[in-house]
Known about the structure:
Elements: E1 4-6, E2 9-11, E3 14-18, E4 25-26, E5 36-45, E6 51-63, E7 69-77, E8 84-87, H1 88-93, E9 96-101, E10 104-109, E11 115-123, E12 126-130, H2 134-142, H3 150-156
Parallel strand pairs: 3-8, 4-7
Antiparallel strand pairs: 1-2, 3-12, 5-6, 6-7, 9-10, 10-11, 11-12
Amino acid sequence: xxxxxxxxxxxxxxxxxxxxxxxxxxxxxxxxxxxxxxxxxxxxxxxxxxxxxxxxxxxxxxxxxxxxxxxxxxxxxxxxxxxxxxxxxxxxxxxxxxxxxxxxxxxxxxxxxxxxxxxxxxxxxxxxxxxxxxxxxxxxxxxxxxxxxxxxxxxxxxxxxxxxx
Length: 165
């Protein structure tokens, strides 16, 4: 599973914004929604000259800061990469605009009057989007594939009776 350290805290919801990446990429197979098997096996070559196999292509739901769920389309599932990558070029193709400044990066929906839908942080010369995976996380919990500790969910939903979880 791809994980990132942000301020000393482990976080796997971080997406690195990459202007040079041709495609969005993840290693999290559980995030995939409408999986399409590849007709021909593909590969991704990373900056360290390692070739990684692409196993599937899919869309991934992201809970944006505006409260809506957006789908990153044509996301490559590359199980052996260690970071989630967002392709700026692919975002533009999907009707989104990304702007960068010293305060961070900003994603606007060009199909919806340039509405701001997500903000990212700047850490030196790197930009990241920290998006919520609520839809995916709740789906995993419902299907018994996620959070192993019911006490965490008990706290997150306002200390509701455990029988309701």
